[in-house]
Amino acid sequence: MLRLFVHARFPVVGKCCDRAYHAFGSIETDRLLLRRQLAVNLIRPGTGQSSGLFWERDRKGGYNTEQRVSAKQRIVDGLKELRTEFALFQQEWKEKLESDPLVVFRPGEIDVVFGFESQPDLDRWVVTTDRDHGEGYSEATLERSPAGYGVFHGTLESRVPKDGRIKRAGYANIKSLRVRKSFKREAFYDWSQYNTLVLKVRGDGRSYLINLTAEGYYDILWNDIYHYVLYTRGGPHWQVAKIPFSKFFLASKGRVQDQQGPVPLNRITNVGFSVGSRGGHEGSFRLEFDFIGLEFDPSHQEEFAYEMYRQQKYIVAT
Fold first, then answer.
1. Where do the NADH:ubiquinone oxidoreductase intermediate-associated protein domain residues begin and end (predicted)?
2. Which of 87, 163, 259, 282 shows its CA 20 to 30 Å from the CA of 169?
3. How far apart are CA 209 and CA 228, in angstroms?
């Protein structure tokens, strides 16, 4: 079994493993071929089920939803976006030459990162539910209210599809688009000068999960997300929630990690909000946004609110 695992994890040493297979004189050839085929299937990615044990094809986290597009269609789509990308490139250089970097961050001043005043502001977000992945029947949308605010609302259902595979259902999520420079170059939000996340919201009494994504270079880090809970009050009044970044904790694919640490504020790629129906909280939900911003609070000196256990070097997570 050890030789089988090595062959599956490191295909580049196939010749060495072939010689190891032939060393078993008492095993039939067809059985060896079957085992070799099973070993290859262990690392075949993209099925969205039990395969892809060691790496993932893309940053979708196992959902293989890419549509095949011909080379001709890619060229046509690229030419359509060329004017927009050049305008964005020109705006980047204009800001770089004209603007001065912020040096002083005065207490009480909130720098707005996400507003919800117009439709282009809402287009910066993506809404997903369990229904989108064939895993449930929840519905959600993000739209502007008559008063000009962003409203994330919908209906949560804990009923699961009768396929024998899904055990729990009932969630909805909004996530900001990946921040990019012109010509689709990847970029990051640099929030290293701030220490507090500020939200002006009007909720329904539910608890929502705030998600800060900090994608790394390697695929093992693609699903690292920092979470904290947003507790909302029901009723007609707005609330301003100020959450220090030191309160966020690290999780990967929904599992809280033993190896914790502060949020890398210079590598934030996405911001998101999730709501679930677990615990009998199904039905309608509504979360209204005025703005999402940042603030530097000099009275907050805490670097990280949780214990950071010293792990062995070969232990990544549990």
1. 114-288
2. 259
3. 6
CATH number of the domain where residue 203 is located = 2.60.120.430
How buried is 116 (Cβ within 10 angstroms: 0-12 exposed, 13-18 middle, 19+ buried)? buried
Domain-embedded: residue 231? yes
Q: Same domain for 114 and 219? A: yes
DSSP E strands, the chain: 111-115, 125-129, 139-144, 150-156, 171-176, 196-202, 207-213, 224-231, 239-244, 249-252, 255-256, 270-276, 283-295
Cα distance from N-terminal residue to C-terminal residue, the chain: 24
**For residue 141, which of 107, 113, 168, 174 has the smallest C-alpha distance?**
174
Question: Mean pLDDT throughout 131-156?
Answer: 93
User: End of a domain among 79, 100, 121?
Assistant: 100
The tens digit of pLDDT for each residue in 247-282 reads: 999 998 888 988 888 999 999 999 999 999 876 688
The residue type at 298 = P
What's the pLDDT at 9? 35
The full length of the chain comes to: 318
Q: How many C-beta neighbours within 10 Å does residue 126 have? A: 15
Q: Cα–Cα distance between 223 and 213 in angstroms, integer?
A: 8
Q: Give the predicted TM-score (pTM) of the model.
A: 0.73
Tokens of 21: 């297979």
- Tell me how far apart the alpha carbons of residues 210 and 230 are, in angstroms, rounded to a whole number: 6
For residue 169, the tally of other CB atoms under 10 A from its CB is 23
> Which position has the token pair 């007609």?
236
Residues forming beta bridges with residue 285, ordered by sequence position: 154
List Cα–Cα distances, 16 to 4, 25, 26, 54, 121, in angstroms.
Answer: 11, 17, 19, 21, 56
Please check the confidence at residue 16 and state whether its pLDDT lies above 60.
no
Its domain, for residue 288, covers: 102-296
Nearest to 270 by CA among 80, 41, 114: 114
Q: Check: CB of residue 36 under 8 Å from CB of residue 22.
A: no
